[in-house]
Structures are given as structure tokens and as C-alpha cells.
Amino acid sequence: MWEIIKTATPQLISAGIKYSIPIALISFFFGMVLALMTALVRLSHKNRFFLIVKGIFRFYVWLFRSTPLLVQLFIAYFGLPYLTIPGIFPNGIKMSPFLAGILVFSLNTGAYGSETIRASILSISKGQWEAAYSIGMKKMQVLWDIILPQAARISLPPLSNSFISLVKDTSLAASITIPEMFEVSQQIAAQNYQPLTMYCLVAFYYAIVCTLLSFLQSYLEKITSRYTIQ
Question: Where's the ABC transmembrane type-1 domain (predicted)?
């Protein structure tokens, strides 16, 4: 067993550095950008035309929160190549496994993250908006200088949990042939016929990464809560 662990560990770590961690970081970054945009759009009050845009974003959130992540990956990588659009995608929408994974993980993270950010913004007292308006601040100034910094502190714990979950969810990328840690563990298990050892080993490395992220989350929470009134 120890020989298997010694041989497999470098391969698993390499797969994590090359694929698992980059997928998680890139997807979370784009997911948060999309989440913030979605939350702000859904909280805005504009004309009737803007209601259509809000409806589109609401449908997007509903769609990705109501369907399994694994199904979304299969649709993006295996299904979209069969969707032909004359003049634009006559041969279907084809993506590399890595791009398909980034796209789906980003959209999924954005859908869940938008609800967290939206709730955080709504939790800020309306009195702060009114106080800022009373001293001549514009709406965007109030949003970026007063509301969003507070909302960021409130949403830090749930968004950190989302990132930790995303790190674990990258194991689903094996289903679309991305050679991340879990996929590599499957390949090695097929060679040495030791699936229990390999799956326990890869679970151990996922646990290490998630534990380190949990410590980082606690540290960030302490920093952001340093000046809050208890």
C-alpha cells in the first residue's frame, strides 16, 4: 500500500496543481463577477424594458439552481455539439473539456453566489442609504463606498463555503475527461487494481485542501470583523 501511495502521490498533486486548483480559482472568479452583476440587476428598479433583463437573470438563477451540476456538465460538453445554428455554429457548439468545465462551474457558482450577495445587500439597513443621500452622495457612490463593503463582510462566510464546495465539485470534471485529481486516481486504480486505496488517498488530499481553506476562511472572517460593533 505504501508503495502505491508513494507512486501515486506525485501524479495526484500534479493533477491538482494543473487542473483542480486552476478550475476552482478561475470558475470562482468569473462566478463572483457574474453573481455580483446578477444580484445588482435583480435589485434594480428601472423601466419596463429592464424588467425583461431582470426576468432573464431570474430564469438563469432558477435554471442553474434547479438542475444537477453533473447534468449541466454533460449538456455543455456532450450535448451542445449537437446544437447547430446556421451561420453561427453550423457544426454545433464544441468546446474543449477545460473550457466546458470552466463555463459550467462559473455559471453554477454565479447562480448560487448571486442569491448570497443579493441577501447580503438587502440586509443592510435602508437608513444607511437615506443618510448617504442626505449628504449629497449619488446612488452608485452609496452602493460602492458604503453598501457593498458591508455586504462583502456579511457574505464572506457563505461565499467561502461555496468556494470550498466548488473545490470538491471539481471532481465532477472527471465526467467530461478533464484529468484532474479524481480522474487521475481512477486511471491509477485501473492500473493497479487498488480502487479503495486510491479513492481514500484522493479523498485525503481533497480533505487537506479544504481544511486549509477553512483556516483561511476563519482568518479572513477575523480580519473583516475587527472593526464591527459587537
Answer: 17-217
Q: Give the residue among 21, 166, 43, 19 at the shortest CA–CA distance from 106.
A: 166
Q: Where are the domains of the chain?
A: 2-224
Residue 113 near residue 27, CB atoms below 8 Å:
no
Contacts of 30 (CB under 8 A, 6+ apart): 102, 106, 109, 110
Q: Which amino acid is at 43?
A: L
Q: What is the CATH number of domain 2-224?
A: 1.10.3720.10
Is the entire prediction scored with pTM above 0.85?
yes
Three cell numbers, residue 205: 488530499
pLDDT (tens digit per residue) in 155-175: 999 999 999 999 999 999 999
| 8 Å CB contact between 106 and 34 | yes
Q: Whole-angstrom Cα distance, residue 196 to residue 153? A: 41
Phi, psi of 85 (to 5 degrees): -125, 105
Residue of 174, 158, 177, 159 whose CA lies nearest to 206:
174
Coil, strand or helix at 109: helix
At 220, is the pLDDT very low, low, confident or very high (cuts 50, 70, 90)?
Answer: very high
